[in-house]
Write a structure and sequence with these properties.
The chain is α+β, with helices and mostly antiparallel strands. It has one helix spanning 12-61; strands spanning 97-100, 110-117, 134-142, 150-157.
Length: 163
């Protein structure tokens, strides 16, 4: 009977090559995971910004069009005499240059709103003009994680009420 004197196992070079391959794979996995965590954070911030923006837009839109129930509409936009806080606001133009504070519940978010009269014959977008039957509401939500603020826009029309 012949006896073979061969040894089975890995050499030191085999171990070094194997560990190098595993190290490269781990670095790749860790970088993919890091990108995933950053993207999921951005998505979470964006979803919360959308929820805040929708909430603010709904709050503004639930108010009546103007102080006056019929044309001619108010000539100045913004809060009226005696309206100290948002609890006192009674029409949409009271939110003309409002800043909303959600920092207690959602730190890092800034929310602002604009309301202005537009003249559809001139521009739908941003023509601040004399009071007429149309007002645009713009709500912007921002956070340091977002590349750009999330902006909501709505067009409101005044309806003349027959007395």
């Amino acid at each position: 009977m012949k006896r073979h004197n061969s040894q089975s196992g890995f050499s030191l070079i085999d171990l070094i090559i194997g560990m190098s391959i595993i190290s490269v794979a781990l670095v790749g996995i860790m970088s993919v995971q890091s990108n995933y965590v950053n993207m999921s954070n951005k998505v979470e911030v964006g979803l919360r910004a959308v929820a805040l923006g929708n909430s603010v837009m709904s709050t503004i839109r639930m108010h009546r069009f103007d102080e006056n129930s019929n044309a001619p509409w108010s000539s100045t936009l913004g809060t009226d005499t005696g309206e100290i806080s948002s609890d006192d606001y009674d029409d949409i133009d009271d939110y003309a240059s409002a800043a909303w504070d959600f920092s207690y519940w959602y730190p890092g978010y800034t929310v602002s709103s604009r309301v202005f009269s537009i003249n559809l014959a001139t521009s739908w977008v941003d023509s601040v003009g004399a009071p007429n039957n149309f007002k645009r509401i713009i709500v912007a939500v921002n956070h340091e994680v977002l590349d750009n603020p999330i902006v909501f826009s709505s067009l409101m029309a005044g309806i003349i009420v027959d007395d």
